[in-house]
Write a structure and sequence with these properties.
It is built from 14 helices and 27 strands. Among the domains are: 2-138, no CATH class; 208-291, Pentein. The strands form nine sheets. Strands 16-17-18-21-22 form a five-stranded mixed beta sheet. Strands 1-2-3 form a three-stranded antiparallel beta sheet, with no helix packed on it. A three-stranded antiparallel beta sheet has the order 4-5-6, with no helix packed on it. The chain starts with a strand and ends with a strand. A hairpin with a 2-residue loop joins strand 19 and strand 20 (419-422). Helix 5 (207-214) crosses helix 8, helix 6 packs antiparallel against helix 7 and helix 6 packs antiparallel against helix 10. With 544 residues, it is an alpha+beta fold. It is globular and about 70 Å long. 25% of the residues lie in helices and 24% in strands.
């Protein structure tokens, strides 16, 4: 069978042949030694992940040459350009040479000309990625997320836009920024991030696109405009009416983009004065604030198992971001098909944010009790998820309540089965609370205090755990790279992560530990105080 997968050796998206052979049968060039044989079309003879697992080979990236492929190694991909070929299964395809993000080398990418297993499958010819890969594999692109490291199939992003130019020093505190990113360069950096994901087989979807689908119905659209205006705390009836009329006249997509960019007082003409508030206004330039934090799509919601959290954000500046997600969940069945569970809803009263939610396994969710997430919200989420899913335990990590440690994922992320990035200051001893259900379905709480490494070994049933310190043992490097989200990695497969290239000390450490590091530029993106994990909301991952 022909499959599109992430090449385990070089990290590039590639087509694989897969078939079952009797034990001891020869698989030919490019096939592994187990009964499940797969060979990458990219021209290498990489070991399959299954082979590595079965033989106990812990080097997740054994390559053509028998060693590990790192960031600067050559992947050995074939070159040349050919059209109208036929694979061994009788599937027609075209083949072209493109640049691979894994090693900056040219490689062959194939585009099928016929459907695979009667599934609708399309591939982006320029990048060789499977646009609808998750549909081809699972029949659905619905919410399915049972780990931090399973191969990423689908991710929700927001391409940074005009809202950034609404930032000025006078509103930094109000809008949670310390600096103003340069929009043009920030967009280029974000596009690099999205393209890197596509090149590695991830389907990228965007907030604006998915919200537009949700608002296709006229009545839903009108309800959304009313709701978003209310959430902007516009108390003047006259101003509210004027804004609703202004937004209603726009095409849906333009209206969504305008809401994200912010509605300025100069945009609204002819306000019908109905109260003193209509006559007396402040010098503040906006009726409806911009949403410059929206490119950190991790926080408004979290896809956990086969369900979703739609968060009550801790600050007024970010609360409307989750409202966009609320409408996606309710009215966009491409994003959240019927039957998708909801663990935490937008209307719940207590604050929680997605940077504090980590899916450690199909049975364990970790949540940070942080500056942005309350214990009441954690308890509500745990109650719903534990009663109605495969999850058996929620671990609550009590971390410092300060901006540098804003969320759990700013100081701790999972990069492989037994490897984690961590800020040295939270290694422990750390206070942990365990939430489980008793035999009557009631929440049961247990407190413990231990070193981080011991907690992870115990809870994940691992013989050993490796903590990779942000900045290594250099205290100044740790502080600098932590500020620029050196611990905030996005795993797109076991042992394959996306990071900011500026965090070179941490990146080199990850590389030396056998983690494949894919870097993106971040001179402007990092000004928002969030990394690749913060900028991504995984929707669908393969199971481990």
């Amino acid at each position: 069978m022909l499959k599109f997968e992430l090449c385990r050796a070089c990290g590039a998206g590639a087509l694989f042949y897969e078939m079952l052979l009797p034990d001891g049968a020869a698989g030919g060039s490019g096939f592994g030694s187990g009964s499940r044989r797969s060979g990458p079309v990219c021209g290498g003879t990489h070991k399959s992940f299954a082979e590595q697992y079965e033989t106990g080979d812990t080097s997740k990236y054994a390559d053509h040459y028998g060693g590990g492929v790192h960031r600067n190694d050559t992947c050995g991909c074939a070159k040349g350009e050919t059209d109208n070929l036929m694979d061994d299964n009788g599937t027609a395809y075209t083949e072209r040479v493109v640049k691979s993000s894994c090693c900056r080398q040219e490689s062959k990418k194939k585009t099928p000309l016929t459907s695979m297993n009667n599934a609708e499958t399309s591939f982006a010819s320029a990048s060789g990625t499977a646009k609808n890969m998750c549909e081809a594999k699972s029949g659905s692109c619905g919410i399915h997320n049972y780990s931090e490291i399973g191969k990423l199939r689908r991710v929700l992003l927001h391409r940074i836009g005009e809202e950034i130019e609404g930032l000025v020093p006078d509103n930094f505190e109000r809008l949670l920024f310390d600096d103003i990113p340069y929009l043009k360069v920030a967009q280029e950096e974000h596009d690099c991030f999205a393209n890197l994901l596509r090149e590695n087989g991830v389907e990228v979807i965007y907030y604006v696109d998915e919200t537009e689908k949700a608002l296709a119905d006229k009545d839903v659209r009108e309800d959304f405009i009313r709701h978003i205006t209310e959430e902007s705390h516009i108390y003047s009836e006259g101003i509210r009416e004027a804004i609703c009329a202004y937004l209603s006249e726009m095409p849906t997509r333009k209206m969504i983009e305008k809401i994200i960019a912010g509605v300025k007082k100069s945009d609204i003409q002819n306000v019908k004065s109905k109260s003193l508030a209509d006559y007396i206004t402040s010098d503040y330039p906006y009726y409806m604030d911009p949403m410059p934090n929206l490119y950190f799509t991790r926080d408004p919601g979290a896809c956990v198992g086969n369900g979703i959290n739609i968060h009550h954000m801790s600050t007024a500046a970010r609360r409307r971001e989750a409202l966009l997600l609320e409408y996606m969940f309710k009215y966009n069945k491409d994003f959240a098909p019927d039957g998708t569970n909801i663990w935490y809803d937008y209307d719940f009263a207590h604050e929680i944010e997605g940077g504090d939610v980590l899916v450690l396994s199909s049975e364990i969710v970790a949540i940070g009790y942080s500056q942005r997430t309350s214990v009441a919200a954690i308890e509500k989420f745990a109650e719903n998820a534990l009663k109605n899913s495969t999850f058996k335990k929620v671990l609550v990590f009590d971390i410092p309540k300060c901006r540098a440690f804003m969320h759990l994922d700013t100081v701790f992320t999972m990069v492989d089965y037994d490897k984690f990035t961590i800020h040295p200051e939270i290694e422990g001893p750390l206070q942990i609370f365990e939430i489980t259900l008793d035999k009557d379905g009631k929440a049961h709480f247990t407190s413990m205090q231990d070193e981080f490494v011991n907690i992870l070994k115990k809870e994940l049933s691992l013989p050993a755990v490796e903590l990779i310190r942000c900045g290594g043992d250099d205290k100044m490097a740790a502080q600098r790279e932590q500020w620029n989200d050196g611990s905030n990695t996005l795993a797109i497969a076991p042992g394959v992560v996306v990071t900011y290239e500026r965090n070179h000390v941490t990146n080199d450490l990850l590389d030396k530990k056998g983690v494949k590091v894919l870097t993106i530029p971040s001179s402007e993106l990092s000004r928002g105080r969030g990394g690749p994990r913060c900028m991504s909301c995984p929707v669908n991952r393969e199971d481990l």
